[in-house]
Batch of 2 targets.
Target 1
Amino acid sequence: MCLAIPSRIVKIEDQMAVIDVDGVTREASLLLLEDARVGDYVIVHAGFALHKIDEETARESLDLLRDVADRLDGGDPPAA
């Protein structure tokens, strides 16, 4: 199973991007993605940016993932 986490492009040099998720950065190849720009949100798998997503969708996904992580870490129990 693969979990796609939206990442924001913070820097582009040649065909490589520096991407950020909540302050954690790493590199991803842009070879499979056309017209990527700094500030775009992308879905990355195996080190390659596969496609862009809009900011609202990215933020909703990140909020849901944070909520799940909080619950797994012993936060509020799920509503019945």
Target 2
Amino acid sequence: MVFQLTDEQAAVVELVREFVTREVLPVASRLDRNERPEDCFSWELVEKASAAGLRTLTLDEEYGGSGVDFVTTALAVEELAKGDMGLAVVFAQTWKLAQTLQLAGTAEQRARYLPAYAADPRGLLAITFTEPDTASDYFVPHDGARYATTAVEAEGGWRLNGLKHFISNGNRASLYIVFAQTDVAQSLEHGSTAFLVPRDTPGLSIGRVHDKLGERLANNAEVIFEDVFVPDADVLGEPGQGFRVQQTFFPASNAYAAATVLGVAEAAYDRALAWARQRVQGGKPIIQHDSLASDLAELRMWLDATRLYVLHAAWAGDHPEAWDPMLGALPKVLASEVGWRVLTRAMEVHGGYGYMKETGMEKLLRDAAAFLHSDGVNRTLLLKAAKHLR
């Protein structure tokens, strides 16, 4: 395989890089420091991204987007995360859900929802899997795994009741893909259904916004459904086949999550390298000390290897004939472990300064910790991959 960016991919990377430099870096640290999690989110950044054409990056051209593939999207996510992880999560969620809706939605659903999403400069998307007692179960389903959120057939549609939590863009999305149990006699693998639910649907409300350690520019929140009526026209896929819709989502989800934490690690590495070149100890810049230079070389090796793995997973998502199910689990595990390694070592390169907030390393460390847990706890994802070995 030849790993060289196309002209389109290079243009997208440059567009995101310019947006990060101009709009994200000047405000990210200030937003991150806000006490209330709701105040860390910025509609202004979303609107500016819309104006730059970034929000609709993955939307097909017929709906007003750029129609980029999985690889280009992964590159964009990584570049955006160099500016701020939380903002990268806001858009990675929206980008992959636009792709999911285009893959799994009917022509009528696409025509009804996608133009409206494209036209709204604040249009964001969210997907609701996780519940207080149902989390790892949908990654590694078993016979007893069921969503507590249920949907019961009613005249012309379904009645939806339940609570989801930890939902990225949960309090900001204009449209949700909601997974609910529609056959309580079956596991969620065989008895769940996916629904399209607009934000203004009666009975849908927002609970608490979770107060996170890092990744703070993205809001995660509870989404509550109280007797929400969903018409049959808004069933995504077939009733009882929610897990099939889920499978269209996970390839991109894992690759984009990996690209997100990779971008944070890249930002930390770049700061450590710049610091090592200008910080003088022992009579010379510390990069001239062999032990430290070899540490930086090792980090570069891990980052480059991880990027190739992430891009391979994204490429396989674009080429289903080459898909390996393990690529829907392992890239994020590798990227998050490498990211944590890079962050802790990059802090050490800074010496005592690395522990001071003024260098920015503290924020990057908090952000990198997120994906040891987010998008599937690493141990759960390893178990998911292990199922394919068996």
